[in-house]
Amino acid sequence: MIVADSRQIKMGVRFEGTEGWVHVNRSGIEAGPKSLLKSVIKPNEIHLYKSDDHKQNLLDCVKTRSQTVAPVYAGHHSIMVGHLGIAAMKLGRKLRWNPETERFINDSEADRLLSRPMRSPWHLYL
């Protein structure tokens, strides 16, 4: 999607498909055409979780030892796109990413941007 005026870009995520688009953010949901919002998901189709309160869900799951509606790996993979973009902007060039190893391909300079030195006494065991 190309937007001529950057003020038209909204936070959130936009899904585009053969029948139209859906844009979702913390404020709500929009679609084009609007009829997409009235379509019913069939039992054999993918159903996503719903959470009106992630914080409460986390606290409930700590108590019950159950899984949160937003798995940690989903958050990790979602934010990585932003981190990769920041690395490319800092270095001023295109980067190639290996999602299996979670490292840049043949680019130790870019790999150094994946973490930062920790102050003593803090450290990570990998």
What distinguishing features does this structure have?
126 residues; alpha+beta; 3-stranded antiparallel sheet; 28% helix
Q: Could you characterize what this model shows?
A:
The protein is of the alpha+beta class and 126 residues long. The chain folds into two domains: 1-37, no CATH class; 50-115, no CATH class. It has three helices and five strands; from the N terminus they run βββααββα. The termini are far apart. Mean pLDDT is 87; it is low at 1-6.
Summarize the structure.
The protein contains three helices and five strands, in the order βββααββα. With 126 residues, it is an alpha+beta fold. The model is unreliable at 1-6 (pLDDT under 50).
Layout of secondary structure:
Layout: E1 13-17, E2 20-25, E3 28-32, H1 54-64, H2 72-91, E4 97-98, E5 103-104, H3 108-111
Radius of gyration: 20 Å
- Helix % is 25-40%
The best one-word shape is extended
Structural class: alpha+beta
Number of strands: 5
Which residues sit in consecutive blocks of at least 5 with pLDDT less than 50?
Answer: 1-6
Strand order in space, largest sheet: 1-2-3
Average pLDDT metric:
87
Task: Report, as a whole number of angstroms, the end-to-end distance.
Answer: 40 Å
Largest sheet: 3 strands, antiparallel
- Specify the number of helices: 3
Order of helices and strands: EEEHHEEH
Please state roughly what percent of the residues sit in beta strands, choosing from under 5%, 5-15%, 15-25%, 25-35%, 35-45% or over 45%.
Answer: 15-25%
Total individual domains: 2
